[in-house]
Structure formats: C-alpha cells, structure tokens
Amino acid sequence: MATLALGPSPARREVLTRRIRLLVAATLTYNVIEAVVALTAGTLSSSTALIGFGLDSIIEVSSAAAVAWQFSAREHALREAREHRALRIIAVSFFALAAYVAVDAARSLTGAGEASPSVPGIVLAALSLAVMPFLSAAQRRAGRELGSASAVADSRQTLLCTYLSAVVLAGLVLNATLGWTWADPIAALVIAAIAVKEGRDAWRGKGCCAPGRPAGPCRTTDTSDTSDTTGKTKEKQ
C-alpha cells in the first residue's frame, strides 16, 4: 500500500527553488554594497564593530554564493549532494568572523585604539535593520518548505545581520552622542558571540526543517514508502 510522499511536489519544489535563487541574488547584491560601505567607514573611524559588520557582510556573500552554487544544479539529487558542503562553508565562515572580531575587540578594550563617531555607519546600520528581516524571513520560509538546511542556514545568517545591525547601531549612537568609545568593542564582542552560536548551528544543520519535522540535519530528497503484499517497505530516494 503506497503512502503519501514527504515534502513538496516536484512542481512546488521548482517554484521554491526559483524563489530561493532570487532571494539569494538580492542578498548577494545588498551585502556587496554593505560590505564596501561598512569596511570603508569602519577603517576611517577605527570602528571594530563596523569592520566586523563589514566582514560579516563578506561572509554573507560567501554564504549566499554557496547556496547559489547548490541551487544552480538542475537535478534535485545533485542539489542534495551539495547540501553538506554548503553548510560547512557557512559554518566555517561564522567561526572565522567570530575569531577576528573577538581579537580586534579585545585589542580595542585594552587601549590599542578608540573608535571615532561615524555617521555613514549609523545610516548603514539603520538601513540594514530595516531591510534584512524581510529577506531573511522570505528565504527561511522557502527553505523550510523545501527542506533545505543550507537555505535556512543562509537565512539565519541574513537574520544575524539584523541582530548585528541593531548592536552596531546602538554602539555607534552611544559613541556619537555620549562619547562612550567602549561601546564599539562591546558591540563587536556581541557580534562574535552570535557568530559562534550561528556557526555551531549551521555545522549541526539545526533549525532547517519544516514544521512537523524533527530538529537536526535535513535531507532534501523526497522519500516515499511503498509496501508490497509481503509487508516489505521500499524507500525511493
């Protein structure tokens, strides 16, 4: 007796795949611009938080590129084969960001350098705080319905940009209005802590599954169980 296949139908899967491609392209474009502005403003103002924000944007570009590479495959089976590698790229990128930002923030807190106010940085952080939640939510919904761990992990990285935008904005505003130069490296350390958590989750494939599925690494293949008259069950990969 045949049972219903898990996951979306082939037609729906193709719609979701195209949607993810478009969202990834939008994320790539925005983050390239964000990285250039943040790194330039951060260098001019000696802001560890802004430089970390810019580096996160570069990592988001690599993350989105990894997902774009995965979903460039037309065959569903090939996309699944690329899933694990894409997740590893995303996770390692998070860990690299955390290490760099933590070291630079510690250096700033010990008096190696103080950040000056940055109006362009404040504008950029505020804009990202408005844009990123929408991109993240749309990709997360599509990725969960499709059952793609890498697409959801990439959406979590986009969501991380929202958190980072809020943290960076708070640090920059406090520095600009109250002269609290220590707020900048503290904001950077928060960025590092969030990056470690997200990197660990991406490595484990956590948070990828659609509602009703168990937590943990997802498989993006559709499986269906068919039972013959002898009671044996065959799994179609």
Keywords:
237 residues, mainly alpha, two-stranded antiparallel ribbon, 6 helices, 75% helix, disordered C terminus
What does this structure look like?
The structure is a single chain. With 237 residues, the protein is mostly helical. The protein is built from 6 helices and 2 strands; from the N terminus they run ααααααββ. The protein has a two-stranded antiparallel sheet with strand order 1-2. The longest helix is centred in the middle third of the chain and has 37 residues, at 76-112. The radius of gyration is 20 Å and the shape is elongated.
Could you provide a short overview of the structure?
The chain is mainly alpha-helical. Helices cover 75% and strands 3% of the residues. Helix 2 runs antiparallel to helix 3 (76-112) and helix 4 packs antiparallel against helix 5.
